[in-house]
Amino acid sequence: MSTMNRSMMAVLAAILAAGANAELPERDGYTHMGVATCATSQCHGSAVPRDGSSVLQNEYVTWTQDDPHSRAYAVLSNAQSQAIASRLGLASATSADICLDCHADNVPKAQRGDRFQLSDGIGCEACHGGAENWLASHYNTATASLESNRAAGMYPTHRVDARGELCLSCHLGNRDKFATHEIMAAGHPRLAFELDTFSELWRTAGRQPHYQPDADYSDRKGGVNHLYTWAAGVILESRKRLQLVASERFAGDRLFPELALYDCHACHRSMKSVQWRALPRHGGVGPGQPFLHDGALVMAMVVARVISPSDADAFESGLADLHRASSTDVAATQAAARSLDATLARLENALSPARLGNRELALLREVLATGAEGNYLDYISAEQAFMAVQMLVIEIGDPVLEERLDRIADTLNDDERYRPSRFAAMLASLENPEHADEQ
Ligand code: HEC
Ligand code: HEC
Ligand code: HEC
Ligand code: HEC
Predict the structure, then answer these.
(1) What is the 203 CA–ligand 2 centroid distance (Å)?
(2) For residue 83, which ligand has an atom nearest its CA?
(3) Phi, psi at residue 48, to the nearest 5°?
(4) pLDDT digits (tens, 9 = 90+) for 16-52
(5) Taking the CA of residue 384 as centre, how many other CA atoms within 13 Å lie in the half-sphere pointing to its CB?
(6) What is the rounded CA–CA span in Å between residue 166 and residue 160?
(7) Tell me, what's the pLDDT at 12?
(8) In sequence order, what are the residues at sequence separation of 6 or more whose Cβ sits closer than 8 angstroms to the Cβ of residue 61?
(9) Are 389 and 426 in contact (CB under 8 A)?
(10) Which residues line ligand 1 (CB under 6 A)?
């Protein structure tokens, strides 16, 4: 990342101000006009990227051909979905809100325009917001701006916090929609997420990217900072998880707030090999306890250790408190979750692109050091560590380290056969990045 001067900082501040506290598209209250209204060849339906335009204009083609989101509704008719629906006693997955809320742009009927079709799945407006008030104006470069589009209801997908909130609404769930353990046990895949990795996976899924973060894009929207997207993303996901644990929805007189918020492999792994070891972050809780899913939290700990050691201490003791509380009862678990969330709110406030600077190497070393303490004993933490390491190694730009990523990834191919010692050995191959030190 280049160093910033004052005028760039001012531009960035204006860009960030455009769209603070946006409502998610799913509850923005605007009419969603339908993918067809975006798809003409003069608009976003060009067969190939257009020259002389700030945006590619072939987003519709990229989306229909290669974006998993355009298939999200169709997936609800496949055999896996039919089996899930029948186990849950649903008439069909394509008509059940609990499925449609994450697999389509399931806004209330009154907010569906003439050309809206539920079968379009996760269409443009499921992410960019209902186009009722900006469809006719947003492309006029003479009059439309980030601010005017935002004021007309376009969702600020360029903002890391707003985008994180958007993606996590489906890839983790939120207060309105959630893939419960009941849905998982009926056959739904486990959800995993990391904002930077998933943004890049998705952006580049097709023959053409969804958008091109080039110089023009940076001028208009402040560019893409992978380090910051990752760090802000793991803190945001951690906060969302803690808020779900603490939420009313999962309160009550049960043993667990909601099993899907736990580490799946705490219960679902082979009994033939004993992997359990006491870890500092578990706060002295003994073997045989299911743990809350803290994969993103372990990465938030890495961020804290690098940018704010005082918050890191508070965070680590808060995480240990949470794990201890979760072996007692739901009320104590929820109280500990709220308290840890408050610590993370401080860390979130302290985080900025400038605070992270160019500390790729320091972060890589901390991810490795955190592993050396035994923290990647569980698959979900290893999965998060891998996504972090991959982003960092690519940012560092060392081809020797990049070549080693595939072998590390191989050790994570099958979550049920995960061997922490193999992952640790492979991860160690990134230690002493002497090549990186030379840059
Ligand atoms: C909280 C949001 C959420 C809810 C609720 C939800 N899903 Fe999903 N579903 C997802 C996400 C996100 C994925 C993609 C996971 C990934 O690959 O990382 C997914 C993946 C799937 C897949 C696998 C798709 C593939 O391409 O292999 C099926 C099948 C599926 N969901 C069916 C259902 C059904 C049926 C329901 C309703 C009972 C449902 N989902 C409810 C978010 C959700
Ligand atoms: C899964 C969410 C999602 C869906 C679905 C989606 N987009 Fe996007 N789109 C984004 C994100 C995130 C960005 C990048 C951040 C930004 O520039 O706002 C983006 C960027 C863009 C850009 C580039 C903006 C620029 O300034 O360079 C255009 C144009 C665009 N999308 C159009 C579309 C169209 C048209 C569709 C439907 C065919 C669509 N998008 C579907 C999330 C989505
Ligand atoms: C409305 C819900 C929703 C939103 C919002 C959403 N997704 Fe998804 N996403 C899904 C579902 C459902 C699938 C699975 C679709 C399928 O398999 O057909 C999916 C699939 C994906 C995949 C492919 C995963 C895999 O295992 O192959 C990626 C990557 C992805 N989403 C990234 C993102 C990013 C990045 C954002 C935010 C810009 C985002 N998604 C926003 C619901 C959503
Ligand atoms: C506290 C322990 C615990 C946690 C944590 C847990 N599960 Fe379960 N899971 C169970 C139990 C108990 C059953 C029921 C087993 C049975 O019916 O034989 C079950 C059943 C299942 C099944 C159906 C298995 C079958 O053979 O019918 C699936 C799939 C599943 N869970 C997935 C998950 C996923 C994904 C997660 C993490 C998001 C998770 N579980 C977290 C305890 C747990």
Answers:
(1) 9
(2) 1
(3) -130, 160
(4) 555 556 899 999 999 999 999 999 888 999 888 888 7
(5) 33
(6) 10
(7) 61
(8) 45, 46, 47, 208
(9) no
(10) 75-76, 80-81, 84-85, 88, 93, 96, 98-99, 101-103, 170-171, 173, 177-179, 183, 188-189, 191-192
